Write the C-alpha cells for this entry.
Amino acid sequence: MSQVNLTSAETFSHKSKAEAYVIITTGAGEESKALEKLDDMEEVKEAYLVSGSFDILIRLQADDMGRLRELVKQRILRLDEVRRIRVLLRG
C-alpha cells in the first residue's frame, strides 16, 4: 500500500471545507471500475478519466483535513483497482 502524508496547510481562503485533488493510477483496464466506485463516494465532487501518467483525477471535499486524510487512507487507497495516488491539497 502507498504511503500518504497529509498535513494541514495554511489556508489562504475563507472556505469552511477542506478540499483536495487526487490523481490516481489504476491497474491496466481497471479505470472505469475504479471511477464507478469513486463516483459513489459522497466526498468525491468531480471525477474524470484522464490520459497521460495517471488514469483518474478527482476533487474531494470534506469537513476538515482529518476527514480528507481518513477518506484517502481508509477508502481510496483500499480500492483494489488503485495502484498509486498523488494528493494535492487546495489552500
Remarks:
- Residues 8-14 have pLDDT under 50 and may be disordered.
- The chain has two helices and four strands.
- Residues 65-76 form the longest helix (12 residues).
